[in-house]
Amino acid sequence: MTLIPTIDEGACSAHGDCVAIAPTAFALDETAVVIGAATDEELVAAAEACPALAITLTDADTGQVVFP
Ligand code: SF4
Fold this sequence. Notes:
Elements: E1 3-7, H1 17-21, E2 26-28, E3 32-34, H2 40-49, E4 55-59, E5 65-67
Antiparallel strand pairs: 1-4, 2-3, 4-5
């Protein structure tokens, strides 16, 4: 599976947990932003760690939302 992350900028509280877990995928600006790729495992860990549930993961093959 290849997961595509998106950030709900309105929900993100910008503390950077996702950046700490998947620094190749996320960076911190005024909110977190997607900057590149990471393994699916890293993306799931980052999304699960997000206290604001601001990270959505979509399956690139099916278009289905797999998290949250
Ligand atoms: S973990 Fe969630 S709330 Fe925190 S910076 Fe990342 S997207 Fe924003």
